[in-house]
Amino acid sequence: MNKSAFHKKLLAGPYLVWMIGFTVIPLLLIAWYGFTARDGSFTLENVTAIRTPEHLKALGLSLALSLTCTGVCLLLAYPLAMILKGSGLGKKGFIVFIFILPMWMNFLLRTYAWLNLLDDGGILFQICKRLGLPTVSLVGTNTAIVLGMVYNYLPFMVLPLYNVLVKIDENVINAARDLGANSFQVFYKVILPLSFPGIVSGITMVFVPSLTTFAISDLLGARKILLIGNIIEQEFSTANNWHLGSGLSLVLMVFILISMAALSHYDKNGEGTSF
Amino acid sequence: MRNKKELAALTISIAALAAASMPALADEKYPNGQVKVFNWGEYIDEDLIEQFEEEYGIEVIYDTFDTNEAMYPKVEADPSMYDVVCPSDYMIEKMIQNELVQEIDWDQIPNREYIGDIYLESCEQFDPENKYCVPYTFGTVGILYNTTMVEEDTEIDSWNVLWDETYENDIIMQDSVRDAFMISLKRLGYSCNSVDEKELEEAMQELKIQSKLNKAYAIDEVRDKMINEAAAIGVIYSGEYMYCKEENEDLSYAIPKEGTNIWYDGWVITSKSENVENAHKWLNFLCEPESALANFEYIYYATPNIGAQEMIDEELLEDPGVFPDEEVIRNCEVYSYLGEEAEDQYYELWKQVK
User: Fold this and answer.
1) Do A223 and B217 count as a contact with CB atoms less than 8 A apart?
2) Residue A258 neighbours by CB distance under 10 Å
3) pLDDT tens by residue, A78-89
């Protein structure tokens, strides 16, 4: 009995090594850098630096853009997940396939493609010109960044939603109809509450990466727009100030932890987890 | 049987002979030893290395680096590992301060006469009295503009054009802290190495105003965007200008009258060099007008070698983007290393710009 328990633990070994080496130790390093100054002495300055106007501005903008992105994703993904739930098996597989397909391509390449779509002289520009419409160059605007985020993170919203929706027992819906509920009531009183774990999970899966992104904002923001992710990236790369970068990362982690806590509160059974 | 023995003896003696003559052969090819060179990647016409080996009978051990920052720790760890190194201005300054380089014996470099006085004078900003460095290449930061896209009657000759509202959304700015602040500081009449809080604050406020007019910030992409005519005006390094001009004839380069940054890469001899004499020979060889010309045609960065300049196309020579004249160079400033604290200050302000 004891022996088999030990064997089971042994199986977790590689994962444990991985976790410690690539999650726990790096996190500790970030914390160490975040709470020390260049000379190695303890300081809170790197963390409280978030209060400076330029950091607050970047954080505020990041929150606004990632919330917008999450909202748009939810609005787009929910109907799609409903369609998926309702469609036949073969068709379903096809739609999911179409959805996953772009994810086989590198994320940066896909974002570059958006750059080509939206840039001056890009495809959208040419189409508007041909049709005699006023030409717009979206690159360098918040809109472009949100578009890029939505495109990249939409699958992370669709899949958890789809996962919870297919698990809803048809009998529950039929029962509601039998008892006289109209379509709206069925959706509002039955489907929506039951899909709540998926919604929460999808929100987290989209909100967290879009809050921290720097590649999308770099490319589609023409480097004019600084999100908190860009600031942290700059601290590590060009400014060569790992301490400040780590301090700001710790602050950002608080926001991520809050959304994770919300997730575990509403999704106790892990129903909404997609992968 | 006898034959076999003889054969064996013969083989052995041939082998012995060969072994004995091997070092002799090597000596014959390189009787004058070696010189260990540490240079940027793709930063020399490689035929020159062979030519030097043949002419001087010195073996060249050639090694390359990608950034000054990658080069420095290697030389610092063991200054005898290389005899000659080719860092940039601010790094040479740092190496002089940390005694990693030795004084050049100019008597051993008669070809120094080909290096233009103006360049040596300009190099004194990081190498006072020209004791340590033989300038190799140089360049400036300036304004690249499309002659068909800027207003006809305005002459582009000042950083002010970047603040000109007629070019709103038509400007591509360098996304580099030092260069952006250099522009703003120079425009206000300050040094681009300023660490004065008030001056930097003022420069930042001006950059903030300027940022509203920018179409984009970019580094390497400035080149492509300007070639594709995505903007009328861009801030670019002179080294990139010749490529841009080749791709799009309408592009022109101007050095603003307020002055700009000039950079140099130059050869230094390491403090613990084991082949000092050969190192001087190498430097002298590179200062020959023919070598400098070959390098110019290969690397396409401006050469401070007057002898080579005389052999270069007049059109290029008169282009201020490639060879600025003396007065302009006198007005240019080399970046010096400001230290960590000042750099943090620059970054702090840079974040407030955008």
Assistant:
1) yes
2) 10
3) 999 998 888 877
Residues B164 and B256 occupy one common structural domain: yes
Residues of A in contact with B217 (CB under 8 A): 222-224
Q: Is the pLDDT of residue B184 over 90?
A: yes
DSSP states along chain A: -HHHHHHHHHHTHHHHHHHIIIIIHHHHHHHHHHTB-TTS-B-SHHHHGGGSHHHHHHHHHHHHHHHHHHHHHHHHHHHHHHHHHHS-HHHHHHHHHHHHGGGGS-HHHHHHHHHHHHSTTSHHHHHHHHTTPPP---TTSHHHHHHHHHHHHHHHHHHHHHHHHHHS-HHHHHHHHHTT--HHHIIIIIIHHHTHHHHHHHHHHHHHHHHH--HHHHHHTTTTS--HHHHHHHHHTTS--HHHHHHHHHHHHHHHHHHHHHHHHH-TT-TT---
B48-76: buried (b, 16+ CB within 10 Å) or exposed (e) per residue? beeebbeebbbbbeeeebeebeebbeebe
pLDDT higher than threshold 90 for residue A272: no
Q: Which residues of B touch A (CB under 8 A)?
A: 175-177, 211, 214-218, 228, 230, 340, 343-344, 347, 351-352, 354
Kindly report which listed range (B11-15, B146-150, B228-232) carries the lowest average pLDDT score.
B11-15
Residues B148 and B256 in one domain: yes
How far is the C-alpha of A247 from the C-alpha of A270, rounded, in Å? 31
- pLDDT tens figures, A86-134: 887 777 788 888 878 888 889 999 999 998 888 877 888 888 888 888 8
Q: State whether B274 and B311 are in the same domain.
A: yes
DSSP assignment letter at B30: S
Strands B84-85, B34-40: pairing is: parallel
Q: Nearest CA to CA, how far is A193 from chain B (Å)?
A: 43
Residue B11 above 60 pLDDT? no
* Domain hosting residue B188, numbered range: 139-261+334-353
Q: How far is A21 from chain B, CA to nearest CA, in Å?
A: 27
Pick the CATH number of A52-266 from 3.10.450.50, 3.50.4.10, 1.20.1510.10, 1.10.3720.10: 1.10.3720.10
Residue B316 confidence (pLDDT) above 90: no
- Residue B51's pLDDT is 95
Q: Which residues of A touch B340 (CB under 8 A)?
A: 38
Conformation bin of residue B144: beta by default, left when phi > 0, alpha when psi is -120 to 50: beta
The C-alpha torsion from B218 through B224 and B226 to B229, rounded to 10°, is: -120
Give the three-state DSSP class for B253: strand
Span A47-71, average pLDDT: 95
Nearest CA-CA partner of B331 in B238, B254, B237, B260:
B260
| B144 Cα to chain A: minimum distance (Å) | 19
At B115, list the tokens.
Answer: 């290096």
Strand partners, B36: B61
